[in-house]
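STRUCTURE:
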């Protein structure tokens, strides 16, 4: 069963947030937004993302680790949905992969702002962080078994994304980075709602694997949020 094995990998990956053993980041894996987004505009949002950078203190080690990790974690989400869309042809995966590209672009703009080295490898399914690589590989094995397992994978990615974005918010003191994370969090909540709707419309049910059950229900069965900053 998907969740019994995957939680072992997820637990290992989530714990990376505190140690950054790869030297690139820290934490663990991230759906369908209401509107499809394009495949990103590269660094077109750099000016807005930088904010009043010149007057701000530099990033802490924890902020750097979180930012680099979240950039790759969003790639796990995007790449997973691209692969699953190709396998199962479900529109939700295409919509969500476009949204995840927007998430990646927002984090890339911040990485450029602060002169950091981007960990992203420009190849679908390849990751600098070895924990994320292991997670992606396992998710694709499970998601490749059936369309409903693919939807379960999507919901689990979004659960994990919500947890990891919150961890990143907790270590962030820079307003421009915090604002980006809050927008990504809003988008991820909508993505989770979309996956749960799709799962249940197919006559199946979903048990949360990462979020507290009460928090999961509060998110999954609440109205779609309309203003997520474009995410």
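SEQUENCE:
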């Amino acid at each position: 069963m998907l969740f019994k094995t995957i939680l072992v990998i997820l637990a290992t990956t989530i714990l990376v947030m505190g140690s950054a053993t790869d030297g690139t980041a820290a934490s663990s894996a991230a759906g369908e937004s209401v509107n499809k987004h394009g495949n990103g505009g590269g660094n077109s949002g750099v000016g807005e993302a930088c904010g009043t950078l010149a007057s701000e203190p530099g990033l802490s080690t924890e902020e750097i680790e979180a930012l680099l990790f979240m950039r790759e974690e969003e790639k796990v989400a995007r790449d997973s949905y691209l692969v699953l869309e190709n396998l199962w042809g479900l529109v939700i995966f295409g919509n969500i992969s476009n949204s995840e590209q927007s998430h990646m672009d927002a984090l890339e703009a911040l990485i450029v702002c602060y002169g950091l080295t981007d960990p992203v490898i420009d190849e679908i399914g390849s990751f600098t962080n070895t924990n994320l690589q292991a997670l992606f590989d396992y998710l694709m094995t499970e998601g490749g078994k059936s369309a409903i397992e693919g939807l379960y994978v999507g919901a689990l990615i979004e659960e994990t994304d919500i947890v990891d974005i919150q961890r990143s918010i907790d270590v962030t003191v820079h307003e421009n980075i915090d604002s980006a994370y809050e927008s990504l969090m809003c988008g991820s909540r909508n993505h989770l709602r979309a996956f749960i709707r799709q799962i249940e419309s197919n006559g199946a049910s979903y048990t949360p694997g990462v979020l507290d059950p009460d928090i999961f229900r509060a998110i999954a069965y609440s109205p779609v949020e309309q203003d997520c900053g474009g995410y």
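REMARK: Residues 18-47 have pLDDT under 50 and may be disordered.
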